[in-house]
Amino acid sequence: MNSYVEKILNEEINKHPEELEFNQALEEVLKTISVIFDNHPEYEEMKILEKLVTPDNIVKFKVDLKRDNGDLETYDGYRVQFNNSVGVYKGGLRFNSHVNESVLKALGFEQTFKNALTGLAMGGAKGGSNFDPKGKSEEEIKRFCESFMQGLANHIGEGKDVPAGDLGVGAREINYLYDAYKKIKNNDEEGFITGKPIEKNGSLVRKEATGYGLVYLLNEIIKIHPISHEIRVIISGSGNVAIYTAEKCKELGMKVVGMSDSKGYIIDENLDLEQIKVIKEQKRGKLSEYSKGIYHEGSIYDAEIKADIAIPCGCQNEIDIKRAQNLVKNGIKIVIEGANMPDENDAIRYYLKNNIVFVPGKAANAGGVSVSFFEMEQNRLKEKWNFEKVDTLLKTTMINIHNQCLEAMKEYKLDSHDYLRAANLASAKIVIDKLIKRQ
Ligand code: NDP
């Protein structure tokens, strides 16, 4: 590792040894971009790394919730505005009991690179609370969103910082947050939050964006790493990302042979996606209710299923080294991440050692935030774009992400399977260039 990179990494870890998630994110990214600092020794004097690893602002606030039984609970609210050298702060809000400052710093740092890679003018941010909407009544969730927005409203806004949803913050919560902001600010701003319902100036294609975008990128990768027979795909999860990934895979002639949820998985050579949509999107049910194929409890990654492409869209750290070994044994040639960080580091190393193409979420799931950007643009211009226009812009963005990865592979003589290093290097270069221009 470059000595300047090593020095800053050690200093950071010593500054906040308790921030395990943030330190892990720093280590993972800095190791892969070290070569940039070998080529540019002048960056040390310019203190580029210090700027790259330090969040611009961390806003903390208290969020009170009155429960239906009259009890008062207090939660932590945060907004980490990590870096706005590329554009306005942009990143989701997460409501989950595991949320703390370290988790949000890690996610805000990652988001800075993901957003830069889209080529769109967005900086990185992340926010949320250690409140978990699961098990709370509709009224309690509404009151929580109102109270959260009291703490957040003065720190966000069009052209400044634009949050969106993330885990625990879906369409329902965005709707409540939108109404609360409007009540506090009483202005005609629309682009202060994204993922809004269509009738509240949301964008078409937002629902499909992450899954469709992933497959547009995958389509480019297959041109470089061709598969000469009918392509067989397995997808973990059956939520928003998984369903629209499966839909686009099928549309492009790939065969989706397995999907899963948090309890189990189904194997079906003739997968009925419409039935899965009804179970998951309408009934909010379990995959065990699927009436065809074969259902098993456990992880799809422990199963014996011959397939070419694995698309993890479930949760963080779904795939450890053992599951990675199983995937390779089953004939997988490409692993492309729909979720954020579903593969453990050992699993990624194993793929690359075995010449498996590995594409990190930072590149593969960037379609969601890209369409959020198009939602902001529509709000700014007071326009409503049709499905085809947004879909075309999404496709162009994903092809651009792929081109940037290819350029990084060429410039740094990377292995053509290693989209992790390529994505980190390509995005870090963009952020650093902007940081320098701002100095
Ligand atoms: P959803 O909540 O809609 O779906 C998550 C799915 O994963 C559910 O089907 C859930 O099962 C399943 N799941 C949860 N834990 C596991 C597990 N251990 N093993 C297998 N499946 C599991 O989330 P999204 O689809 O929106 O997001 C999925 C991931 O993608 C998250 O990491 C998110 O941060 C990331 N992401 C999402 C974007 C978006 O636009 N939605 C954008 C970028 C990233 P069950 O149905 O049983 O709950």
Features:
439 residues, alpha/beta, 7-stranded mixed sheet, 5-stranded mixed sheet, 16 helices, globular, binds NADPH dihydro-nicotinamide-adenine-dinucleotide phosphate
Question: Would you kindly provide a written description of the structure presented here, covering whatever features stand out?
Answer:
The protein has helices at residues 3-15, 20-39, 42-45, 48-53, 101-117, 138-152, 171-185, 206-224, 240-251, 273-282, 321-329, 345-353, 361-364, 367-381, 387-411, 419-438; strands spanning 57-66, 72-83, 89-95, 124-129, 161-164, 232-236, 255-260, 264-267, 294-297, 309-312, 334-336, 357-359. Helix 2 (20-39) runs parallel beside helix 5. It is 49% helix and 15% strand. The protein contains 16 helices and twelve strands. Strand 3, helix 5 and strand 4 form a beta-alpha-beta unit. Bound molecules: NADPH dihydro-nicotinamide-adenine-dinucleotide phosphate. NADPH dihydro-nicotinamide-adenine-dinucleotide phosphate (NDP) binds next to helix 9. NADPH dihydro-nicotinamide-adenine-dinucleotide phosphate binds at residues 166-167, 210, 236-242, 260-263, 299, 313-315, 318, 338-340, 365, 368.
